[in-house]
Design goal:
The chain is an alpha/beta fold. The chain folds into 3 domains: about 60 residues, OB fold (Dihydrolipoamide Acetyltransferase, E2P) (Beta Barrel); about 160 residues, Rossmann fold (3-Layer(aba) Sandwich); about 60 residues, Ribonucleotide Reductase Protein R1, domain 1, CATH 1.10.40. Helices cover about 30% and strands about 25% of the residues. The chain is built from 10 helices and 13 strands. The strands form 3 sheets. It has a 6-stranded mixed β-sheet, with helices on both faces. It has a 5-stranded mixed barrel with strand order 1-2-3-5-4. A two-stranded antiparallel sheet has the order 6-7. It starts with 7 loop residues before the first strand and ends with a helix.
Length: about 300
């Protein structure tokens, strides 16, 4: 098409409302608006756009390799795309929500995104030891679980742990998630020193003011722009309503490991006789740990996903 000659490629690195910030291959940053009433672009999207006066218009979102959703009180909406991995940052304090952790892992599994669980504040014992023990079922399932400490007094003794995480980030686009107080801002400011400056620049450009903290932002960790961190505020309540209830078990490794022993192929793992999952929960003497907490999360999510969708 002749009009394609006017289109330029870009990467969406921030957004607020219907405005997004697009970065071009040569490093320019342009405010762009979607064509039409509904914005379909999210941070991480590769797009084709064209100049309209001093700003730009998104003409096309290029095919995504994955897409994550979040859920608010009203609706589900997409918020990040084209990820290599999700870093779920938890702290020894405050106590983390296992339900939120499970939702993040399920969302990543559904999109075939590598998750890494990171427990921060290793210097806080015995709080760290208790939190580390809570993560034992996840290590048993095969998830990568790392320990870190980002406060200055913990750096020297724990440099190896932090270096392991830093190496895991290299050459990848990683979404960093974590509840308030887990240390996410400290991590980002340590490894992306210009993050605060860029956030203020985006705030000014998008005229979003104090609401900037509600937006998702991509930061480059290196000048070559091969390693990116995407910061999404808070611990997102992941939207899982695009997942069918009967698909849920296969996205939870400990449930899936026992589901093969079920008598019925269409077992919901809630009440059926001869259910391998229920047997594992009741006996708790199988090869993989099946914690009552994890099973309750499964049953609660199954009920949530079974509700009528409007």
């Amino acid at each position: 098409m002749a009009e394609d000659k006017n289109l330029q490629q870009g990467l969406v690195i921030a957004g607020h409302g219907r405005h997004v910030w697009v970065e071009t291959p040569d490093g320019r940053k342009v405010i762009c608006h979607p064509r039409g009433k509904k914005s379909q672009t999210v941070v991480g999207d590769r797009v084709l756009w064209q100049i309209t006066q001093d700003e730009g218009t998104i003409e096309k979102v290029l095919p995504r390799k994955n897409l994550l959703y979040r859920q608010d009180e009203i609706r589900t909406k997409s918020f990040a795309a084209n990820l290599d991995q999700v870093i779920i940052l938890l702290g020894a304090e405050p106590e983390f929500s296992e339900s939120q952790l499970a939702r993040a892992l399920i969302a990543a599994e559904a999109e075939k995104i590598q998750p890494i669980i990171v427990l921060n504040k290793r210097d806080l014992t015995p709080l760290f030891d208790r939190a580390w023990q809570r993560l034992q079922p996840y290590r048993a399932m095969g998830y990568t679980v790392l320990a870190t400490a980002f406060k200055p007094q913990g750096i020297d003794a724990l440099l190896h742990d932090n270096q392991t995480l830093l190496m895991a980030l290299q050459g990848k686009t990683s979404l960093i998630l974590g509840p308030s107080g887990a240390g996410k801002s400290t991590l980002i400011n340590r490894w992306v020193p210009h993050a605060q400056v860029l956030t203020q620049e985006i705030s000014t450009a998008l005229n979003s003011g104090k609401h900037t903290t509600t937006s998702t932002t991509l930061y480059w960790m290196d000048e070559a722009k091969t390693t990116a961190l995407i910061d999404s505020p808070g611990f997102q309540e992941f939207g899982l309503h695009h997942i069918a209830p009967m698909q849920l078990a296969q996205l939870m490794p400990d449930i899936a490991a026992q589901a093969g022993d079920c008598k019925f192929y269409n077992c919901s793992h809630l009440h059926e006789p001869g259910c391998g999952v229920l047997t594992a929960v009741q006996d708790n003497n199988t090869g993989i740990e099946m914690s009552p907490t994890r099973y309750k999360i499964y049953s609660d999510l199954f009920a949530e996903l079974s509700q009528t969708r409007y």
